[in-house]
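Quick illustration, no need to memorize.
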Amino acid sequence: MTQFDKHPDLIVRQPDPFNGGPPPNLLLGNFITPYELFFVRSHGGVPNVDRSSYRLTVDGLVERPLSLSLDDLQRLPRAAVTATLQCAGNRRQEMMAHKPIPDELPWGTEAVSNAEWSGVPLREVLAAAGVRPGARHAAFTGLDDTERHGHRFNFGGSIPLDKALSGEVLLADSMNGQPLQPVHGAPLRVVVPGYVGARSVKWLSRITLQEKPSDNYFQARAYRLFPPHYDKDNVDWEKGLMLGEAPVNSVILSPQEKATVPAGKVTVRGWALAGGSRGVARVDISADGGENWTVADFIKDEGVFVWRLWEAVLDLASGPQEIVCRAWDTAAQTQPERAGQVWNFKGYANNAWHRVRVTCA
């Protein structure tokens, strides 16, 4: 094992703070991603949290401000949810191949994983605090300290209040039936199913109900989607769209890029994921640039908030081939054809058709 007892074959994009995820061959076949393979996205170091003195502050537009210990939280009703988390920068490398994206992690397809989470539903804590009129957003602040543009602050973000009050949003202290580990946000993290991973704030220290979205750097500036004519030198930060619900996406895990496979019938496998409360309805596979499609079969039939594993058999001729996949969600939304169509200077939300080039011998 490597740092944080992660698998030694994890693709490490940054050693400090640690950022990395599993290569396709290790992700393949695991509906639930084991701890040692679960991707890590951190913006600062892992904080050292004293569990005995830890308090979760709940304030803002609430009737009764709270300061909750871990024991206090244990006395509240609990729930569990299976949810796939994906970094908003997943598949950034494909955007970088279209046009450079400086100063961002060059994620491939590895910044995504699926786990069983358990903890206290956020709405239970908000019910205990009481929601005052005017509250529209739940803002989260973590204990991790980071620096951007000469300023030091804690990571944070927010979600709309109606999402915060839905039963699937958890204050999680358990992952895959085991106590949450420090690198994944222990002692307490938010899990926001259907949203980009940045909203699932780790090392949670404060929940603030407020009229407007969080003004934390990572909500107000960093995790925003900008028009393609902006770059880091001419950006107007007010023109960015705040990221929230994840777009429908899919990835081929097998065969892998540049693999050599026998000509003839080849089984293609991968995952697909929808955002919000939508599910994955269909996955299409093509080996001729999208002229003809094969509908994949789902291996694991699950509902919303989780990826769906799929496979399809293609009949491939000898020589170089490009296999592509696209998914459709339950709102009949699908993926754009090319990464250049969704390019942005931060490299977020790439959900173009995924492409794998192989040689058939």
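The chain has six helices and 23 strands.
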